[in-house]
Design brief:
heterotrimer; A alpha+beta (143); B alpha+beta (647); C alpha/beta (175); A: OB fold (Dihydrolipoamide Acetyltransferase, E2P); 7 strands; 31% strand; elongated; B: alpha+beta; 3 domains; six-stranded antiparallel beta sheet; four-stranded antiparallel beta sheet; 18 helices; disulfide bond (chain C); cytochrome c-type biogenesis (chain C)
Chain lengths: 143, 647, 175
């Protein structure tokens, strides 16, 4: 083996080793952090990952938003007009969270009936807006 | 009238870009000096026409010409003048026009500052750049025309998205475009080199300056984007691994690999094929990023008008540019074969390793971003959580930080690896001690925070140590490298502190109530109403005290923009040397004036961005070294030409 | 030869990536079908904006019609207004407005200012019927056939483009 060849061999084996390690870590990291997206219909048919987080997407059902007195806890239903799922969340909801608006909640099923959200996302969308927002402010403007 | 002129200028630009693509390349193929000489003037004229059309768009905004759809959609009578101007690139159509304008500016600059290239080289480079401009001008004209008019003319416009009425967001896209477009120069050089089957040190040195500038802009753009998300989105996060963010981060990663490999290939005949390939990858990722952001293929919390036709258009451009370049690479790369052998015990090897780490990082981020698409193809909807990216990045940055000081310690060509490692020993000890001290002060710290801080001190002490022990005068290249590496260290330490020692609390606060968070007392004194030019707001007042002493009063706002029917959270931030205190309003909880208030304490977050600024400063300092070298080269070329004449 | 195989790798990866992206565009081109498409119009009984008396879904049987959800508060309704007007004036189908979550004074002023393109305007200020229709926001439009079956739905504004390429072809199939 010439020195050049030998060097190249060392280099290539180093690269292969690196790639193998990276792939192994990649696969584990990926497996642990992959999140499924489920609709309320799927969830009510018990089609959701057990004991791990997933994303629940749909519309916030009109009239379903309830605040638990003197806390930051809220409850609301997410619907796809086929089925509803009750969601509980503690914290501040995003600006564009509204009843009748699209929402994605990240969390897990605490029981067959209740989804506990750790994070709630409402999509920013400047072209498409329900009227509640305007209502809220109009009423606030006339104290 | 005016919209028609803008439109006409775009058509003219399309024709000019087509001419710039065809004529110089034809000249190269036929070896015709006359045709090749058209390249530079064409480049300048192209810039003038594109720039003029952009100016027309700005004027339309200033004049409030709502007969233009794009103006009507992104401006309104109440919008202040400064935002009317910046609205010109606020939404999709205008921002693509700005891209094209920046592209044309860059092409013109390349034509001007390329005296060290031969006519055959520069005509090929400009022709490739012309092809890129052609595609994007066509994209503006056929898929996102900002001059499209509407009838009947609305009396008022829809107003600019409130998120975009902000300095950070105004500067963010242009900076990214300067970065993207700057990388197109390195790309064009690669393609030109592959077409001709030749490349030399001087040519790479020339392109390296452009890469440095592009990389600096990209870094600045990413820093601003991160800063903006931090104070404007109201969640206090600085990086979300959102597809839109990844779209700008991918070219940065590949660009970082490219810069480091160019440091080798500009010096010796090595890594030529790899340099060329990295340049192609970096620019391809810019286009891919644009595709991801604009096509709506990937769900993101950031919104952009999604349009399948635009997506297909960009995809076709990507297929032509990157597909073409990679095909050329497949069949021509072997002609660029590097002749110099590389000694394993040299700085070159470490730089190669660096580029491999960064390319691996690029691919892991890319995979994480695209995996939802792959799953969608089999009918499953998934997303990849931020922890995946965080973990992968952490894992990849460990070897990066470990080898960095070794790379700058080792000499070019050939060195004694063992001796170099021995010389690093004091820094190893110093960084270990510093890390232990930090741990004692700030414990508990988790393993990732410790690793990040350790890595940061390791890079910091070694870089400073090497600075003081350097033999002779520091060259601009050395200064640039050291500054950038100190930036890496500052970033690593600050990021570890911000990520792992921050305090985030959502609290229910009634007026008059005081809550303690992270050693500070926060007193909520209530909310009142404020009215501004184009929004109304509810403004909260929170007094921040430490040991009874008033530090500051923070006034976070909940804004409402009536035209866009859009609420916005405007956080109030107290900026300190060691930490930020960040307060934002959630929502009114009851009739008695209680609000949900978000209180964050973010240690060292400013230092993180400062680290980024140091990195880009390093890249800019590096430019000057290249200039000195170029002058020397010119001198040498001159001398050689004289000798040739004599013989 | 071996050399070329190695340099072909980036191209191969790129082609794979491009295929994925193209395929994915295909998925996104199909709009998510509303669960209501192919189903009868939800039963309703609504008052009208300008006429007395209420109407139900039964009153619209016999010819295809378009239900356009709008409100005077809705900026995008302003932008689709010319398109709705053109479509209504072309006489190809009956255009019915559903004035959603609005107030009479505002709605009336809006129509007086811009013109009233609608054949009939139903009023749903509480928004209950809109929920049955699965309305996400305004504007939104439903194409309904002579038998009261929902044939197509446009989320967001009507544009010359989606009228030409979606509404009119679907309408032609009905006739």
């Amino acid at each position: 083996m010439t020195p050049t060849r030998k060097r190249r061999l060392i280099l290539i084996s180093l690269v292969i080793f690196g790639v193998a390690v990276a792939t192994a870590i990649f696969l584990t990291a990926f497996k642990d952090n992959m999140m499924f997206f489920k609709s309320p219909t799927e969830v009510s048919a018990q089609d959701y990952p057990q004991n791990r987080s997933f994303r629940l997407g749909g519309m916030v059902k009109e009239g379903s938003l309830k605040r638990i007195e003197n806390s930051l806890k809220v409850q609301f239903d997410v619907t796809d007009y086929g089925a509803d799922v009750a969601v509980e969340y503690e914290g501040i909801l995003p600006d564009l969270f509204r009843e009748g608006q699209g929402v994605v909640a990240i969390g897990y099923m605490a029981s067959d009936q209740l989804f506990v959200a750790e994070e709630v996302l409402a999509k920013h969308d400047e072209n498409y807006m329900p009227p509640e927002v305007a209502d809220v402010l109009q009423t606030q403007e006339q104290p | 009238m005016l919209p028609g002129i803008g439109q006409f200028l775009l058509v003219l630009s399309l024709l000019l870009a087509a001419a710039l693509t065809v004529l110089p390349m034809l000249g190269y193929a036929r070896n015709s000096q006359t045709l090749m000489q058209t390249a530079r003037p064409l480049a300048h004229v192209l810039f003038i026409t594109v720039m003029a059309s952009f100016v027309v768009l700005v004027v339309l905004f200033v004049q409030q010409d709502f007969s233009v759809l794009y103006v009507a959609e992104n401006s309104s009578l109440e919008l202040p003048l400064r935002y009317r101007i910046t609205a010109a690139w606020g939404a999709h159509e205008g921002s693509i026009l700005m891209w094209v304008t920046v592209q044309a500016l860059w092409i013109s600059a390349v034509a001007k500052f390329s005296q060290s290239l031969s006519l055959s080289q520069i005509s090929r480079v400009l022709s490739v750049l012309g092809l890129i401009a052609l595609g994007f001008v066509a994209f503006v004209l056929f898929a996102s025309n900002p001059f499209e008019t509407i009838f009947p003319v609305p009396a008022d416009g829809r107003d600019l998205n409130p998120l975009l009425q902000d300095f950070g967001m105004i500067m963010h896209p242009p900076l990214l475009y300067f970065g993207y477009v700057g990388l197109s120069v390195a790309f064009a050089l690669s393609v030109a080199a592959l077409i001709g089957g030749e490349i030399n040190e001087q040519w790479i040195r020339w392109s390296r300056r452009w890469t440095n500038i592009a990389w600096a802009f990209l870094t600045m753009g990413i820093i601003l984007g991160s800063w903006w998300a931090y104070y404007e989105l109201g969640w206090g996060g600085w990086w979300f691994w959102d597809p839109v963010e990844n779209a700008s981060f991918l070219p940065w990663l590949a660009g970082t690999a490219l810069i480091h490999v160019q440091a080798v290939s500009e010096r010796k005949n090595a890594f030529r094929g790899w340099t060329v390939l990295l340049a192609i990858i970096a620019f391809s990722l810019c286009i891919l990023g644009t595709f991801l952001v604009r096509s709506g293929s990937i769900t993101s919390v950031h919104s952009f008008a999604a349009d399948p036709f635009r997506g297909i258009f960009i995809l076709v451009l990507l297929a032509i540019y990157s597909g073409g370049a990679l095909t050329l690479y497949a069949f021509r790369a072997n002609q660029l074969r590097s002749r110099d052998t590389i000694n394993l015990n040299s700085r070159e090897t470490l730089l190669l390793a660096n580029s491999l780490i960064f390319i691996t990082a690029t691919f892991t981020v890319l995979l994480g971003t695209l995996f939802p698409m792959i799953f969608e193809a089999v009918g499953k909807k998934i997303s990849v959580g931020a922890p995946y990216f965080g973990l992968m990045f952490f894992v990849l940055m460990i070897p990066m930080a470990v080898i960095l000081p070794l790379g700058s310690q080792l000499r070019w060509h050939r060195d004694d690896m063992l001796a170099a490692v021995k010389q690093l020993l004091p820094y190893f000890i110093a960084s270990t001690l510093l890390t232990v001290v930090v741990w004692l002060i700030f414990k508990p710290l988790n393993i990732r925070a410790i690793a990040g801080i350790y890595g940061g001190f390791w890079v910091l002490t070694a870089t400073l140590g090497q600075w003081f022990k350097r033999p002779g005068r520091a060259t601009a290249g050395f200064i640039g490298m050291s500054v950038a590496h100190v930036g890496v260290a500052v970033f690593l330490i600050a990021m570890s502190m911000t990520e792992h020692k921050d305090i985030e609390q959502d609290i229910l606060m009634s007026p008059g109530i005081t809550k303690q968070v992270g050693g500070y007392d926060f007193t909520f004194t209530g909310v009142d109403r404020v009215k501004q030019e184009n929004y109304q707001a509810q403004q909260g007042h929170v007094e921040v005290r430490r040991d009874g002493r008033l530090i500051t009063t923070l006034n976070p706002q909940k804004r409402f923009y009536p035209k866009q029917q859009m609420p916005m959270t405007e956080a109030a931030i107290y900026v300190g040397w060691s930490k930020d205190i960040y307060v934002s309003l959630g929502e009114a909880v009851n009739q008695e004036g209680a609000w949900a208030v978000r209180i964050y304490i973010k240690p060292m977050i400013r230092w993180m961005w400062f680290g980024g600024i140091l990195m880009l400063t390093g890249a800019i300092i590096g430019l000057f070294s290249a200039r000195i070298k170029r002058q020397e080269d010119k001198q040498r070329d001159h001398v050689m030409a004289q000798q040739l004449k004599l013989s | 030869m071996k050399k070329i195989v190695i340099t072909l790798i980036p191209l191969a990866i790129f082609v794979g990536l491009l295929t994925l992206l193209f395929l994915n565009m295909g998925y996104h081109n199909e709009t998510v079908p509303s669960p209501l498409i192919g189903k009868p119009v939800p039963a309703f009984e609504l008052p009208q904006l300008y006429e007395k008396g209420t109407l139900t879904e039964q009153d619209f049987l016999g010819e295809p019609w378009l239900l356009n959800v709008w409100g005077s508060w809705c900026p995008n309704c302003l932008y689709e207004h010319p398109v709705v007007t053109d479509l209504a004036q072309s006489g190809q189908l009956k255009v019915v407005g559903l004035n959603w979550k609005d107030e009479f004074e505002n709605a009336d002023a809006w129509l007086k200012r811009l013109g009233n393109p609608y054949d009939t305007i139903l009023v749903d200020y509480k928004g209950n019927v809109a929920i049955d229709f699965g309305v996400y926001g305004a504007p939104e439009s439903f194409l309904i056939d002579a038998n009261g079956i929902i044939v197509h739905k446009i989320v967001g504004e009507l544009t010359p483009d989606n009228v030409q390429n979606e509404i009119l072809p679907k309408l032609a199939q009905l006739k």
